[in-house]
Amino acid sequence: MANMTILTPAAIMCALLLFGCNAEETRTVEWYRTPENKVALETKLAECKNNPGELRNTPNCINARKAFELNFTSGKFDKVREPDFGLGKK
What does the alpha-carbon distance between residue 62 and residue 55 come to, in Å, rounded to a whole number? Predict the structure, then answer.
């Protein structure tokens, strides 16, 4: 019976350490790249930038940075139309 008393709290502690109490769901690069998740991407990038010592190598920070990089290099941003100064295209 003494073994069970020690084993149960040890098992609970191991489970908490392995799964974490405040673990967030891991988001994919594609999830961060979708337009409806733009605010989440910007929020995650700001969070990672604010605490790089702890968060730099977490899956969500890595995926958010990669999504930002892909969006930037693929031209997934608002295009600026060149002005025609009222002259029209020729």
Answer: 9
